[in-house]
User: Fold these one by one.
Assistant:
Number 1:
Amino acid sequence: MASQRLLLLLALLLLTMLAAVVAGEGDGVSATGTDGANATTGAGPPAGGTLDVRARKWWRFPATEGLITGSERRDAVWAEIKSAGRASDEHLSILETLFGKNMLRACKIVDERGVRRVTGAPSGRSLFLVIGESKRKEEYLCFPEHLCTCYSFYDIVGRGEQLCCKHQLAARLAEAVGEHQEMEVTDQELAHMLAKL
Protein backbone atom coordinates (compact mmCIF):
# COMPACT_ATOMS: atom_id res chain seq x y z
CA MET A 1 0.00 0.00 0.00
CA ALA A 2 2.81 2.39 0.91
CA SER A 3 4.64 1.62 -2.32
CA GLN A 4 1.48 2.35 -4.33
CA ARG A 5 1.12 5.71 -2.60
CA LEU A 6 4.76 6.45 -3.31
CA LEU A 7 4.30 5.61 -6.99
CA LEU A 8 1.23 7.81 -7.17
CA LEU A 9 3.06 10.69 -5.48
CA LEU A 10 6.04 10.30 -7.82
CA ALA A 11 3.76 10.28 -10.85
CA LEU A 12 1.91 13.37 -9.65
CA LEU A 13 5.23 15.09 -8.94
CA LEU A 14 6.41 14.27 -12.46
CA LEU A 15 3.21 15.61 -14.01
CA THR A 16 3.40 18.74 -11.84
CA MET A 17 6.99 19.31 -12.92
CA LEU A 18 6.03 18.87 -16.58
CA ALA A 19 3.17 21.33 -16.15
CA ALA A 20 5.54 23.81 -14.52
CA VAL A 21 7.98 23.47 -17.41
CA VAL A 22 5.20 24.06 -19.93
CA ALA A 23 3.83 27.04 -17.99
CA GLY A 24 7.30 28.53 -17.56
CA GLU A 25 8.30 28.33 -21.20
CA GLY A 26 9.23 31.74 -22.43
CA ASP A 27 11.58 32.98 -25.06
CA GLY A 28 14.37 33.28 -22.50
CA VAL A 29 15.26 36.81 -23.58
CA SER A 30 17.33 38.66 -21.05
CA ALA A 31 15.82 42.13 -20.92
CA THR A 32 18.83 44.02 -19.61
CA GLY A 33 22.58 43.66 -19.58
CA THR A 34 24.87 44.66 -16.76
CA ASP A 35 24.92 48.24 -18.01
CA GLY A 36 21.11 48.43 -17.94
CA ALA A 37 20.72 48.67 -21.74
CA ASN A 38 17.47 47.19 -22.92
CA ALA A 39 18.31 44.24 -25.14
CA THR A 40 14.80 43.80 -26.53
CA THR A 41 14.32 47.28 -27.97
CA GLY A 42 16.93 47.00 -30.68
CA ALA A 43 19.12 49.54 -28.95
CA GLY A 44 22.15 47.32 -29.34
CA PRO A 45 23.80 44.55 -27.44
CA PRO A 46 24.43 45.19 -23.78
CA ALA A 47 28.05 46.22 -23.34
CA GLY A 48 29.68 43.82 -20.93
CA GLY A 49 26.33 42.07 -20.39
CA THR A 50 25.72 38.38 -20.37
CA LEU A 51 24.43 36.57 -23.43
CA ASP A 52 21.49 34.23 -22.93
CA VAL A 53 22.58 31.53 -25.38
CA ARG A 54 19.39 29.50 -24.86
CA ALA A 55 17.30 32.21 -26.48
CA ARG A 56 19.66 33.33 -29.28
CA LYS A 57 17.57 36.48 -29.39
CA TRP A 58 19.69 38.59 -27.08
CA TRP A 59 19.79 41.50 -29.50
CA ARG A 60 17.06 42.24 -32.01
CA PHE A 61 17.69 44.11 -35.20
CA PRO A 62 14.91 46.59 -36.12
CA ALA A 63 14.65 45.04 -39.61
CA THR A 64 13.69 41.66 -38.12
CA GLU A 65 10.88 42.95 -35.91
CA GLY A 66 7.56 41.48 -36.98
CA LEU A 67 9.07 38.32 -38.47
CA ILE A 68 7.88 35.13 -36.86
CA THR A 69 10.16 32.36 -35.72
CA GLY A 70 9.97 28.75 -36.84
CA SER A 71 8.56 27.67 -33.49
CA GLU A 72 5.87 30.37 -33.65
CA ARG A 73 4.88 29.21 -37.15
CA ARG A 74 4.87 25.58 -36.04
CA ASP A 75 2.65 26.40 -33.04
CA ALA A 76 0.33 28.44 -35.27
CA VAL A 77 -0.05 25.52 -37.69
CA TRP A 78 -0.90 23.13 -34.83
CA ALA A 79 -3.44 25.65 -33.48
CA GLU A 80 -5.06 26.01 -36.93
CA ILE A 81 -5.32 22.24 -37.31
CA LYS A 82 -6.86 21.86 -33.87
CA SER A 83 -9.41 24.64 -34.43
CA ALA A 84 -10.41 23.26 -37.84
CA GLY A 85 -10.46 19.66 -36.61
CA ARG A 86 -8.59 18.53 -39.71
CA ALA A 87 -5.24 19.02 -41.40
CA SER A 88 -5.28 20.59 -44.86
CA ASP A 89 -2.69 19.80 -47.53
CA GLU A 90 -1.07 23.17 -46.79
CA HIS A 91 -0.77 22.33 -43.08
CA LEU A 92 0.74 18.93 -43.83
CA SER A 93 3.15 20.48 -46.33
CA ILE A 94 4.39 22.99 -43.75
CA LEU A 95 4.76 20.28 -41.10
CA GLU A 96 6.58 18.02 -43.56
CA THR A 97 8.99 20.86 -44.31
CA LEU A 98 9.63 21.32 -40.59
CA PHE A 99 9.83 17.66 -39.56
CA GLY A 100 10.79 15.81 -42.75
CA LYS A 101 10.17 12.09 -43.12
CA ASN A 102 9.02 11.81 -39.51
CA MET A 103 5.84 13.68 -40.44
CA LEU A 104 5.01 11.16 -43.18
CA ARG A 105 5.57 8.29 -40.75
CA ALA A 106 3.42 10.03 -38.14
CA CYS A 107 0.58 10.38 -40.66
CA LYS A 108 0.81 6.66 -41.36
CA ILE A 109 0.54 5.87 -37.64
CA VAL A 110 -2.51 8.13 -37.31
CA ASP A 111 -4.13 6.62 -40.42
CA GLU A 112 -3.68 3.15 -38.90
CA ARG A 113 -5.36 4.34 -35.66
CA GLY A 114 -2.18 3.72 -33.68
CA VAL A 115 -2.64 6.48 -31.09
CA ARG A 116 -4.43 6.07 -27.75
CA ARG A 117 -4.95 8.83 -25.21
CA VAL A 118 -4.92 7.46 -21.65
CA THR A 119 -6.65 9.72 -19.13
CA GLY A 120 -6.51 9.23 -15.37
CA ALA A 121 -9.66 9.64 -13.31
CA PRO A 122 -10.50 11.73 -11.39
CA SER A 123 -7.47 14.00 -12.05
CA GLY A 124 -7.94 14.26 -15.83
CA ARG A 125 -4.20 14.02 -16.44
CA SER A 126 -3.32 12.23 -19.64
CA LEU A 127 -0.57 10.72 -21.74
CA PHE A 128 -0.47 8.97 -25.09
CA LEU A 129 0.37 5.43 -26.09
CA VAL A 130 1.62 5.30 -29.67
CA ILE A 131 2.19 2.10 -31.61
CA GLY A 132 5.50 1.83 -33.43
CA GLU A 133 5.94 0.81 -37.05
CA SER A 134 8.10 -2.24 -36.37
CA LYS A 135 6.79 -5.78 -36.74
CA ARG A 136 6.60 -6.08 -32.95
CA LYS A 137 4.10 -3.19 -32.78
CA GLU A 138 5.52 -1.90 -29.51
CA GLU A 139 3.62 0.84 -27.69
CA TYR A 140 5.56 3.90 -26.62
CA LEU A 141 4.52 6.18 -23.79
CA CYS A 142 4.47 9.72 -25.12
CA PHE A 143 4.00 13.30 -24.03
CA PRO A 144 3.67 14.97 -27.46
CA GLU A 145 5.70 18.10 -26.76
CA HIS A 146 8.21 16.75 -24.26
CA LEU A 147 9.01 13.04 -24.18
CA CYS A 148 8.72 9.65 -25.87
CA THR A 149 10.05 6.32 -24.62
CA CYS A 150 11.23 5.19 -28.06
CA TYR A 151 14.89 4.68 -28.90
CA SER A 152 14.80 7.41 -31.54
CA PHE A 153 13.84 10.04 -28.97
CA TYR A 154 16.85 9.31 -26.80
CA ASP A 155 19.25 8.79 -29.68
CA ILE A 156 18.32 11.22 -32.46
CA VAL A 157 16.23 13.84 -30.66
CA GLY A 158 18.58 13.75 -27.68
CA ARG A 159 21.53 14.61 -29.95
CA GLY A 160 19.57 17.43 -31.55
CA GLU A 161 19.37 15.86 -35.02
CA GLN A 162 15.55 16.08 -35.03
CA LEU A 163 13.05 18.25 -33.16
CA CYS A 164 10.90 15.29 -32.14
CA CYS A 165 10.21 11.68 -33.02
CA LYS A 166 7.43 10.31 -35.22
CA HIS A 167 5.50 9.08 -32.17
CA GLN A 168 5.35 12.58 -30.69
CA LEU A 169 4.17 13.95 -34.04
CA ALA A 170 1.57 11.19 -34.37
CA ALA A 171 0.22 11.90 -30.88
CA ARG A 172 0.05 15.63 -31.51
CA LEU A 173 -1.58 15.21 -34.92
CA ALA A 174 -4.08 12.61 -33.67
CA GLU A 175 -5.07 14.86 -30.78
CA ALA A 176 -5.46 17.89 -33.05
CA VAL A 177 -7.73 16.12 -35.53
CA GLY A 178 -9.50 13.89 -33.01
CA GLU A 179 -8.25 10.64 -34.56
CA HIS A 180 -7.11 8.97 -31.36
CA GLN A 181 -8.76 6.30 -29.26
CA GLU A 182 -9.75 7.24 -25.70
CA MET A 183 -8.95 5.10 -22.70
CA GLU A 184 -9.79 5.99 -19.10
CA VAL A 185 -7.89 4.50 -16.17
CA THR A 186 -7.60 5.32 -12.49
CA ASP A 187 -4.93 7.75 -11.36
CA GLN A 188 -3.23 4.83 -9.65
CA GLU A 189 -3.01 2.89 -12.94
CA LEU A 190 -1.69 6.01 -14.64
CA ALA A 191 0.96 6.30 -11.93
CA HIS A 192 2.02 2.69 -12.58
CA MET A 193 2.39 3.50 -16.28
CA LEU A 194 4.54 6.50 -15.45
CA ALA A 195 6.64 4.45 -13.04
CA LYS A 196 7.84 2.42 -16.03
CA LEU A 197 9.65 5.48 -17.33
Number 2:
Amino acid sequence: MTSNQRPSPSASDEALDRLLDALIERQELRRRAAGAPAHAEAPSPLSGAPAAAAANRGTTPRPATAAKKPAEPQPGEPGWQPPEPVPSIGLGRTAWRMLLLALLLVALFNIPVTGHGVSLARILPDAEALVIRDGLLLKGPGPEVYVLENEQLRWISSLEAFERLGYTWDHVHVVDEAFLAQFERGAPVHVLLKCRGKDPIYRIENEQKRWIRDIATFEAEGHVWEDVRFVDCDYLEDIPSGPPIPEDAGAPPE
Protein backbone atom coordinates (compact mmCIF):
# COMPACT_ATOMS: atom_id res chain seq x y z
CA MET A 1 0.00 0.00 0.00
CA THR A 2 1.41 3.39 -0.92
CA SER A 3 1.24 6.50 1.20
CA ASN A 4 -1.09 8.27 -1.32
CA GLN A 5 -3.81 5.70 -1.13
CA ARG A 6 -6.63 6.31 1.42
CA PRO A 7 -7.86 3.36 3.41
CA SER A 8 -11.36 2.12 2.52
CA PRO A 9 -13.98 2.94 5.12
CA SER A 10 -15.22 0.10 7.21
CA ALA A 11 -18.90 -0.96 7.44
CA SER A 12 -19.31 0.70 10.82
CA ASP A 13 -18.06 3.98 9.49
CA GLU A 14 -20.55 3.88 6.65
CA ALA A 15 -23.38 3.23 9.08
CA LEU A 16 -22.35 6.19 11.20
CA ASP A 17 -22.18 8.43 8.16
CA ARG A 18 -25.70 7.43 7.10
CA LEU A 19 -27.06 8.05 10.60
CA LEU A 20 -25.42 11.44 10.72
CA ASP A 21 -26.87 12.39 7.34
CA ALA A 22 -30.34 11.31 8.50
CA LEU A 23 -30.07 13.45 11.65
CA ILE A 24 -28.98 16.46 9.65
CA GLU A 25 -31.85 15.98 7.21
CA ARG A 26 -34.40 15.65 10.04
CA GLN A 27 -33.05 18.76 11.73
CA GLU A 28 -33.40 20.67 8.49
CA LEU A 29 -37.00 19.50 8.10
CA ARG A 30 -37.86 20.64 11.65
CA ARG A 31 -36.32 24.04 10.99
CA ARG A 32 -38.33 24.46 7.82
CA ALA A 33 -41.54 23.35 9.55
CA ALA A 34 -41.02 25.85 12.39
CA GLY A 35 -40.63 28.72 9.95
CA ALA A 36 -43.65 27.81 7.73
CA PRO A 37 -47.14 29.39 8.39
CA ALA A 38 -49.71 27.34 10.34
CA HIS A 39 -52.05 26.82 7.38
CA ALA A 40 -49.26 25.41 5.29
CA GLU A 41 -49.22 22.07 7.09
CA ALA A 42 -48.71 19.01 5.00
CA PRO A 43 -51.97 17.55 3.84
CA SER A 44 -53.09 14.44 5.65
CA PRO A 45 -53.39 11.19 3.79
CA LEU A 46 -57.22 11.54 3.97
CA SER A 47 -57.37 15.02 2.50
CA GLY A 48 -57.87 13.64 -0.95
CA ALA A 49 -60.65 11.31 0.11
CA PRO A 50 -63.57 13.67 -0.66
CA ALA A 51 -62.34 14.32 -4.14
CA ALA A 52 -61.79 10.63 -4.74
CA ALA A 53 -65.24 9.82 -3.39
CA ALA A 54 -66.79 12.43 -5.65
CA ALA A 55 -64.96 10.94 -8.60
CA ASN A 56 -66.15 7.48 -7.67
CA ARG A 57 -69.73 8.72 -7.41
CA GLY A 58 -69.50 10.08 -10.86
CA THR A 59 -68.42 6.74 -12.25
CA THR A 60 -70.65 4.47 -10.10
CA PRO A 61 -73.92 3.67 -11.85
CA ARG A 62 -77.03 4.77 -9.91
CA PRO A 63 -79.79 2.25 -9.28
CA ALA A 64 -82.92 2.70 -11.26
CA THR A 65 -85.56 4.73 -9.35
CA ALA A 66 -88.91 3.08 -8.75
CA ALA A 67 -91.85 4.45 -10.64
CA LYS A 68 -93.89 6.95 -8.58
CA LYS A 69 -97.41 5.90 -7.57
CA PRO A 70 -100.00 8.12 -9.19
CA ALA A 71 -101.66 10.53 -6.76
CA GLU A 72 -105.10 9.51 -5.60
CA PRO A 73 -107.95 11.83 -6.64
CA GLN A 74 -109.25 14.18 -3.98
CA PRO A 75 -112.95 14.78 -3.19
CA GLY A 76 -114.58 16.61 -6.08
CA GLU A 77 -112.01 15.45 -8.63
CA PRO A 78 -112.78 12.99 -11.42
CA GLY A 79 -112.40 9.40 -10.34
CA TRP A 80 -112.85 10.08 -6.58
CA GLN A 81 -114.96 7.54 -4.70
CA PRO A 82 -116.23 7.92 -1.14
CA PRO A 83 -114.76 5.49 1.43
CA GLU A 84 -116.77 2.51 2.44
CA PRO A 85 -118.88 3.09 5.58
CA VAL A 86 -117.66 1.51 8.81
CA PRO A 87 -119.97 -1.32 9.83
CA SER A 88 -122.26 -0.28 12.72
CA ILE A 89 -121.96 -2.04 16.07
CA GLY A 90 -125.47 -1.06 17.21
CA LEU A 91 -124.57 1.56 19.84
CA GLY A 92 -127.45 3.83 18.87
CA ARG A 93 -129.99 1.05 19.12
CA THR A 94 -128.57 -0.07 22.48
CA ALA A 95 -128.74 3.47 23.90
CA TRP A 96 -132.39 3.81 22.86
CA ARG A 97 -133.25 0.49 24.45
CA MET A 98 -131.60 1.50 27.74
CA LEU A 99 -133.44 4.83 27.74
CA LEU A 100 -136.80 3.18 27.10
CA LEU A 101 -136.12 0.66 29.87
CA ALA A 102 -135.31 3.44 32.34
CA LEU A 103 -138.49 5.34 31.46
CA LEU A 104 -140.53 2.17 31.84
CA LEU A 105 -139.11 1.52 35.31
CA VAL A 106 -139.85 5.08 36.42
CA ALA A 107 -143.41 4.87 35.09
CA LEU A 108 -144.14 1.52 36.73
CA PHE A 109 -142.56 1.99 40.14
CA ASN A 110 -141.99 5.72 40.70
CA ILE A 111 -140.20 4.96 43.97
CA PRO A 112 -137.50 7.39 45.10
CA VAL A 113 -134.31 6.07 46.66
CA THR A 114 -133.46 7.78 49.94
CA GLY A 115 -130.45 7.71 52.22
CA HIS A 116 -132.27 5.09 54.30
CA GLY A 117 -133.03 2.86 51.33
CA VAL A 118 -136.19 2.26 49.36
CA SER A 119 -138.11 0.75 52.28
CA LEU A 120 -139.08 4.23 53.51
CA ALA A 121 -140.48 5.25 50.13
CA ARG A 122 -144.16 4.73 49.43
CA ILE A 123 -146.45 5.68 46.57
CA LEU A 124 -149.32 8.10 46.92
CA PRO A 125 -152.61 7.36 45.15
CA ASP A 126 -151.98 10.24 42.73
CA ALA A 127 -148.67 8.57 41.74
CA GLU A 128 -146.68 11.37 43.34
CA ALA A 129 -143.51 9.96 44.89
CA LEU A 130 -143.41 10.68 48.62
CA VAL A 131 -140.79 9.82 51.21
CA ILE A 132 -142.31 8.85 54.54
CA ARG A 133 -140.59 10.82 57.29
CA ASP A 134 -141.28 12.58 60.57
CA GLY A 135 -142.89 15.97 60.07
CA LEU A 136 -144.73 14.97 56.90
CA LEU A 137 -148.06 16.81 56.58
CA LEU A 138 -151.00 14.81 55.22
CA LYS A 139 -154.64 15.65 54.53
CA GLY A 140 -157.39 13.19 53.64
CA PRO A 141 -160.84 13.83 52.15
CA GLY A 142 -161.96 15.67 55.32
CA PRO A 143 -160.74 18.99 56.75
CA GLU A 144 -158.32 17.39 59.21
CA VAL A 145 -154.59 17.89 58.69
CA TYR A 146 -152.13 15.44 60.24
CA VAL A 147 -148.44 15.48 60.95
CA LEU A 148 -146.57 12.19 60.94
CA GLU A 149 -144.39 11.48 63.98
CA ASN A 150 -142.90 8.10 64.87
CA GLU A 151 -145.10 6.33 62.31
CA GLN A 152 -148.21 7.85 63.93
CA LEU A 153 -150.63 10.42 62.58
CA ARG A 154 -151.13 13.37 64.93
CA TRP A 155 -154.10 15.56 64.21
CA ILE A 156 -153.32 19.28 64.17
CA SER A 157 -156.34 20.50 66.09
CA SER A 158 -156.46 24.13 64.92
CA LEU A 159 -155.20 26.61 62.40
CA GLU A 160 -153.62 28.43 65.32
CA ALA A 161 -151.50 25.37 66.09
CA PHE A 162 -150.73 24.85 62.41
CA GLU A 163 -149.38 28.37 61.99
CA ARG A 164 -147.63 28.66 65.34
CA LEU A 165 -145.73 25.44 64.67
CA GLY A 166 -144.41 26.94 61.43
CA TYR A 167 -146.28 24.72 58.98
CA THR A 168 -147.30 25.95 55.53
CA TRP A 169 -150.00 24.73 53.16
CA ASP A 170 -147.46 24.22 50.40
CA HIS A 171 -146.11 21.25 52.37
CA VAL A 172 -149.47 19.51 52.86
CA HIS A 173 -149.94 16.36 50.72
CA VAL A 174 -153.51 15.38 49.87
CA VAL A 175 -154.10 11.60 50.02
CA ASP A 176 -157.06 9.26 50.22
CA GLU A 177 -158.44 7.61 53.33
CA ALA A 178 -156.90 4.24 52.48
CA PHE A 179 -153.46 5.78 52.61
CA LEU A 180 -154.11 7.35 56.01
CA ALA A 181 -155.42 4.03 57.32
CA GLN A 182 -151.90 2.57 57.11
CA PHE A 183 -150.85 4.56 60.19
CA GLU A 184 -151.85 4.52 63.82
CA ARG A 185 -153.38 7.61 65.40
CA GLY A 186 -151.24 9.44 67.91
CA ALA A 187 -151.96 12.25 70.35
CA PRO A 188 -153.36 15.39 68.71
CA VAL A 189 -151.18 18.45 68.29
CA HIS A 190 -152.64 21.34 70.28
CA VAL A 191 -151.57 24.87 71.00
CA LEU A 192 -152.27 26.32 74.47
CA LEU A 193 -152.92 30.02 74.89
CA LYS A 194 -152.83 32.11 78.04
CA CYS A 195 -153.73 35.74 78.48
CA ARG A 196 -151.08 37.85 80.16
CA GLY A 197 -152.05 38.70 83.72
CA LYS A 198 -154.77 36.03 84.01
CA ASP A 199 -154.72 32.44 85.20
CA PRO A 200 -156.93 30.43 82.78
CA ILE A 201 -155.18 28.35 80.14
CA TYR A 202 -157.05 27.47 76.98
CA ARG A 203 -156.52 24.79 74.41
CA ILE A 204 -157.36 25.81 70.87
CA GLU A 205 -159.29 23.06 69.12
CA ASN A 206 -161.46 23.28 65.97
CA GLU A 207 -160.94 27.05 66.03
CA GLN A 208 -162.44 27.28 69.54
CA LYS A 209 -160.80 27.90 72.90
CA ARG A 210 -161.38 25.24 75.55
CA TRP A 211 -160.64 26.10 79.13
CA ILE A 212 -158.50 23.57 81.04
CA ARG A 213 -159.95 23.38 84.54
CA ASP A 214 -156.83 22.80 86.66
CA ILE A 215 -153.22 21.64 86.73
CA ALA A 216 -154.20 18.00 87.26
CA THR A 217 -156.29 18.07 84.09
CA PHE A 218 -153.50 19.93 82.32
CA GLU A 219 -151.03 17.16 83.09
CA ALA A 220 -153.54 14.36 82.52
CA GLU A 221 -154.04 15.64 78.97
CA GLY A 222 -150.31 15.25 78.40
CA HIS A 223 -149.53 18.95 78.15
CA VAL A 224 -146.31 20.60 79.27
CA TRP A 225 -145.59 24.24 80.03
CA GLU A 226 -143.50 24.54 76.88
CA ASP A 227 -146.76 24.20 74.92
CA VAL A 228 -148.24 27.39 76.42
CA ARG A 229 -148.13 30.55 74.29
CA PHE A 230 -148.79 33.98 75.82
CA VAL A 231 -151.05 36.29 73.81
CA ASP A 232 -152.92 39.54 74.29
CA CYS A 233 -156.19 39.28 76.18
CA ASP A 234 -158.10 40.95 73.34
CA TYR A 235 -156.83 38.37 70.89
CA LEU A 236 -157.87 35.51 73.18
CA GLU A 237 -161.33 37.01 73.79
CA ASP A 238 -162.00 37.14 70.05
CA ILE A 239 -161.68 33.36 69.75
CA PRO A 240 -165.06 31.61 70.17
CA SER A 241 -165.46 29.54 73.34
CA GLY A 242 -165.88 25.78 73.19
CA PRO A 243 -166.65 23.14 75.81
CA PRO A 244 -164.24 23.12 78.77
CA ILE A 245 -161.88 20.29 79.65
CA PRO A 246 -163.38 18.20 81.10
CA GLU A 247 -166.73 19.05 79.63
CA ASP A 248 -168.42 19.15 83.07
CA ALA A 249 -165.96 21.71 84.43
CA GLY A 250 -168.40 24.58 84.05
CA ALA A 251 -167.65 28.13 82.97
CA PRO A 252 -164.11 29.46 83.19
CA PRO A 253 -163.32 32.12 85.77
CA GLU A 254 -163.44 35.75 84.70
Number 3:
Amino acid sequence: MANKLNITLKRSLIGSLPKQRKTMEALGLKKINQAVELPDNGSTRGMIKLVEHLVEVKEA
Protein backbone atom coordinates (compact mmCIF):
# COMPACT_ATOMS: atom_id res chain seq x y z
CA MET A 1 0.00 0.00 0.00
CA ALA A 2 1.00 3.58 -0.58
CA ASN A 3 1.76 5.89 2.31
CA LYS A 4 -0.75 8.55 1.25
CA LEU A 5 -4.28 8.64 -0.18
CA ASN A 6 -5.76 11.36 -2.37
CA ILE A 7 -9.41 11.78 -1.41
CA THR A 8 -11.76 13.94 -3.52
CA LEU A 9 -15.34 14.88 -2.64
CA LYS A 10 -17.42 13.99 -5.70
CA ARG A 11 -21.02 14.25 -4.44
CA SER A 12 -22.88 16.80 -2.36
CA LEU A 13 -23.48 16.36 1.36
CA ILE A 14 -27.12 17.46 0.98
CA GLY A 15 -29.34 14.68 2.27
CA SER A 16 -26.50 12.83 3.97
CA LEU A 17 -26.67 11.65 7.56
CA PRO A 18 -25.17 13.77 10.36
CA LYS A 19 -22.55 11.08 11.01
CA GLN A 20 -21.46 11.25 7.36
CA ARG A 21 -21.22 15.06 7.52
CA LYS A 22 -19.05 14.88 10.64
CA THR A 23 -16.85 12.29 8.93
CA MET A 24 -16.39 14.58 5.92
CA GLU A 25 -15.49 17.43 8.27
CA ALA A 26 -12.92 15.19 9.97
CA LEU A 27 -11.46 14.31 6.56
CA GLY A 28 -11.22 18.04 5.77
CA LEU A 29 -13.64 18.01 2.83
CA LYS A 30 -16.28 20.73 2.46
CA LYS A 31 -16.75 21.53 -1.23
CA ILE A 32 -17.32 19.34 -4.27
CA ASN A 33 -14.07 18.55 -6.12
CA GLN A 34 -12.02 19.55 -3.08
CA ALA A 35 -9.14 17.13 -2.57
CA VAL A 36 -7.00 16.27 0.43
CA GLU A 37 -3.98 14.03 0.89
CA LEU A 38 -4.12 11.93 4.05
CA PRO A 39 -2.01 9.09 5.45
CA ASP A 40 -3.06 5.57 4.53
CA ASN A 41 -3.91 4.04 7.90
CA GLY A 42 -6.79 2.23 9.56
CA SER A 43 -8.57 5.31 10.86
CA THR A 44 -8.53 7.03 7.48
CA ARG A 45 -9.73 3.86 5.73
CA GLY A 46 -12.56 3.53 8.26
CA MET A 47 -13.73 7.08 7.62
CA ILE A 48 -13.59 6.51 3.87
CA LYS A 49 -15.71 3.37 4.26
CA LEU A 50 -18.52 5.44 5.84
CA VAL A 51 -18.64 7.89 2.93
CA GLU A 52 -17.36 5.79 0.02
CA HIS A 53 -20.41 6.70 -2.08
CA LEU A 54 -19.50 10.42 -1.85
CA VAL A 55 -15.75 10.36 -2.46
CA GLU A 56 -13.15 9.16 -4.93
CA VAL A 57 -9.97 7.63 -3.51
CA LYS A 58 -6.63 7.26 -5.29
CA GLU A 59 -3.29 6.13 -3.94
CA ALA A 60 -0.71 8.90 -4.02
